[in-house]
Amino acid sequence: MDWNQLADLLFPDIVTTREDMEQRFPKRELPQGANVTRIGPSPTGFVHLGNLYNAIIGERIAHQSNGVFYLRIEDTDNKREVPGAVATVINAMAYFGVNFDEGAVAEGDKGAYGPYRQRQRREIYQTFAKWLVLQGKAYPCFLSEEEIAAIREEQNARKEDIGIYGKYAEKNRNLTLEEIRAKLENGETWVLRFKGSLNSEYIAVEDAIRGKLEMPRNFHDFILLKSDGIPTYHFAHVVDDHLMRSTHVIRGEEWIPSLPIHIELFREFGWEHPIYCHTATLMKIEGSSKRKLSKRKDPELALAYYQEEGISQDAVWEFLLTVLNSDYEEWRIANPAGNYLDFPYTLEKMSTSGALVDLDKLRDVSKNVICRMSAEEVYEKWYAWCVKYNEKYAVLLEKYKERTIAALKIGRGGEKPRRDIETWKQACEFMSFYYDETFEIVDAMPEECDEALVHAFVSRYLEDMDYNDDSATWFGKVRELTREFGFAVKPKDYKKDPSAYKGSIVHVTNMLRVALTGRCNAPDIWEVTHVLGEKIARERLGRWC
Ligand code: GLU
Q1: Which of 74, 81, 295, when mutated, tests ligand 1's pocket best, judged by the most ligand atoms within 8 Å of its CB?
Q2: Residue 435 C-alpha to ligand 1 middle, in angstroms?
């Protein structure tokens, strides 16, 4: 076979060489030790929590080392592409504050190693495909679907490995140039296959998360280019990560079985392969067992879920860092006010046995994250979310900016800050009593306080109320009234002898809280009164008189 002729026959338009490509995408000039990482999501319209999980690792190890982190759109799979899906990926990553130095952006591409969308890299892949043909290492294969199905059946019956290799590959490997030419002229479809060699060798790859991975070397004639000339994931991965000069490939563990194919290609091209980092699959606990998160059953697998629920970017990062790195929680305890970006992230501390996505834990992390923010920061982030997901509320927050910030200041700071807010969506509910437009009586009055009592108590309370009283004076008056109305000032007195009292001060303050805020779970009454202002406070309490 004349490989030159075959290469020109298969790729008549390709005039570039692999040397041209090496020149077009030279080695990056980066400081020693700088890492180059990427994520390569497929634009299916569904952005996965796993995409963010891998993005956070890539972002950390790139930016901690003054390297480069980029976004590559892996759109080689025709069937999976959904219009608008690239924008969805870009927006989701932006929402979570993942910053790329290079890659696909809304208006096209940014960076010198593009195009960053695989469908636009056809010439690049074909240049390397042509080179493989020139080496006699790749050939066109005309097997039809039926022929492949028949081979599979035969292999199944003989309990052999499934695939095209050895004698199953012979027919197409041995076609003459004339036969190939005739088939092409005849319009027969073909794929380009790599010529694997039968062997019983093993390969060993050092995975930065898992340690040494040992597996049989590839012997398959795997597909490089599909019948539309678009590469398979395997071929695109090797060419792209080489030319874009990735130092680390962070991807899900589902890719481990195809590692031998990738290693085979790197070896054939004489390139050093990147450091592989195969991350653990995201799992959840169900009952007493762990299972993989499922797209169908678990809304929390979609990044859109976190956006729609208004789970703050910082909470999601903090949560994923906790899941990702066994040292993170310890670091957080030692650095309660530190920025999570200051945590020295390392791949070695990662779990390999399934990363647990526990939404209760996320909510808990989220409360901690939000209670550490300043009131102004909470306001800005919550407001930004409302602009997108709850317009009516955004209008309220604009109208009552000062009041909202004053409200958010209640119980903030200090050793034990209030942990009222867990998501922006829940904040809209929790904070609703601060605005007449959304104020509602949610909780019932305590049983100990019947209608007549509420009426009498609140009337006296309003009579005695002096808006200028400080918190201590105010509370002194509440205690006085409590006693006057036959309630125990100390809850434990009431507990000891319930028949001696109508209730305790807890019931009294709950009564006032319900009257003022519509609920039992609200911050300090004196503080809330001063955020709402005298007029609104009197109005709300006055309704019960
Ligand atoms: N397109 C691949 C995926 O969506 C990316 C794998 C990789 O990062 O190499 O799973």
Answers
A1: 74
A2: 47
State the burial class of residue 308 (Cβ atoms within 10 Å of its Cβ: 0-12, 13-18, 19+).
Answer: middle
The list of the chain residues with pLDDT below 70 reads: 80-81
- Cα 42 to middle of ligand 1, angstroms: 7
What is the three-class DSSP state of 78? Answer: helix
Q: Are 8 and 216 in contact (CB under 8 A)?
A: no
Nearest ligand 1 atom, CA 251? 8
- The rounded distance, in Å, linking the Cα atoms of 191 and 31 is 41
Q: Report d(CA 20, CA 18) in Å as an integer.
A: 5
Q: So what's the pLDDT on residue 287? A: 87
Structure tokens at 185: 């002229």
Distance (Å, whole) CA 103 – CA 101? 7
Cis ω for the linkage preceding 498 (within 30 of 0): no
Task: Give me the residues paired with residue 278 across strands.
Answer: 251
Atom of ligand 1 nearest to the CA of 38: 8
Please give the single-letter amino acid code of residue 341.
L
Contact 508, 525 (CB under 8 A): no
The whole-angstrom separation of Cα 242 and Cα 271 is 7
Identify the pLDDT of residue 81.
66
In the reported structure, the alpha carbon of residue 252 is separated from the centroid of ligand 1 by a whole-number distance in angstroms of: 8
Is the CB of 50 inside a 6 Å radius of any atom of ligand 1? no
CB 194 within 8 A of CB 138: yes
- Note the helical H segments in 65-205: 85-95, 122-134, 145-157, 166-173, 177-185
Which two three-digit tokens encode residue 205?
A: 């790859």
Element (H, E) at 483: helix 471-484
CA of 41, closest atom in ligand 1 = 4
Which residues face 117 on adjacent strands? 73
DSSP state of 444: P
Q: What is the pLDDT of residue 80?
A: 65
Give which of 100, 54, 77, 117 is closest to 248, Cα–Cα. 54
Pair of tokens at residue 98:
């993942």
Model-level pTM? Answer: 0.89
